[in-house]
Amino acid sequence: MILPRDFYARRDTRAVARALLGKVLVHLDGGVRRAARIVETEAYHGPRDQASHARFGPTRRAAVMFGPPGVAYVYLIYGLSHCMNVVTGEEGHPAAVLLRAGEPLEGCLHSTRGPGNLCRALAIRRETENGLDLTGPPLFLEDAPRPREPIVAAPRVNVGYAGEWAGKPWRFLLGGNPWVSRPAPR
């Protein structure tokens, strides 16, 4: 079953980030099904979050974050890697969950550890998937059983510039899963 829009429309982005763990990200790429089980996420919540792209307002890059929930926000980082977020919350309030890593299930082209690798593995690109509605093909998330692994909260990755926001435990991962991008701090 494809996740409905109300799954993403919750006010607390952290709740969506936790709930996405164990769900299956699917990209129907030219007739090929590419899929990975989500094992790591990060929440970015609102314009005050200094780690969020939305901190500068609805720029050309971040405008999708201000739109309706249940939409893909795909951007290019360091000019090299595509990263995918799912927009959450209410329209007009910029919030999104970065999909940091997945466990490969079907048709993966590359390692799925890390957000850039996950997009590369599922052939997700900014030029073609940014702004897509996630409630139907070609890009969507499927419901799945609750994960057996424990959910671990940790600080987000590579946001040291964000001051006090850098230390917020808004990274969520499945403890002990070998596909997370890096181990959680002890």
Radius of gyration: 15 Å
> What is the number of independent domains?
1
Strand content: 25-35%
Order of helices and strands: HHEEEEEHHEEEE
Q: State the helicity in percent bands.
A: 10-25%
Quick one: CATH superfamily? Methylpurine-DNA glycosylase (MPG)
CATH uppermost class: Alpha Beta
User: Which architecture does the CATH hierarchy give at level 2?
Assistant: Roll
Number of helices: 4
Q: How far apart are the termini?
A: 36 Å
Fill in the CATH topology: 3-methyladenine DNA Glycosylase, Chain A
Largest sheet: 9 strands, antiparallel
How many strands?
A: 9
Q: What is this entry, summarized?
A:
Keywords: DNA damage, DNA repair, Hydrolase. By secondary structure, the chain is mostly beta strands.
Secondary structure elements and their pairing?
Layout: H1 5-8, H2 13-20, E1 24-29, E2 32-45, E3 72-77, E4 81-87, E5 95-106, H3 115-121, H4 126-129, E6 135-136, E7 139-142, E8 151-154, E9 171-174
Describe the structure.
This protein has 186 residues and is mainly beta. Helices cover 12% and strands 32% of the residues. The protein contains 4 helices and 9 strands; from the N terminus they run H-H-E-E-E-E-E-H-H-E-E-E-E. It has helices spanning 5-8, 13-20, 115-121, 126-129; strands spanning 24-29, 32-45, 72-77, 81-87, 95-106, 135-136, 139-142, 151-154, 171-174. Strands 1, 2, 3, 4, 5, 6, 7, 8 and 9 form a 9-stranded antiparallel beta sheet that branches. The longest helix is centred in the first third of the chain and has 8 residues, at 13-20.
